[in-house]
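EI: anyone free to look at a 104-residue chain?
SC: sure, send it
EI:
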Amino acid sequence: MSLKSAIGKMAAYDKQIIESVQFRSNALNTDIKIIESQIKSLEEDIEKIKNARADLTVSTNRSIKVLQEKIFNMVYASDNLLKKEIQTSFSNKKEGNWLEQRLK
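SC: here you go
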């Protein structure tokens, strides 16, 4: 009888150990699935950041080009206006140019 009782207790311990191991295994599998899901989410976020960075680079380069063109046009217009004013000032013989008036 004591042998039968000991075998019964061993079977109960075995059952508890198996259930405990299965519980831990299920928990680990769940944790692994959660971690894999989080890794996938992070990879998607990294891809979104790369795309946003590329879009921002294109947009920034476009803005810089537009600004450069505007600055060039302003400098070109100012240069032409200055040349015209200088030419007008030095070529106006009837009224005398401003330089001659300043030197008198």
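EI: The two ends are 139 Å apart (CA to CA).
SC: 👍
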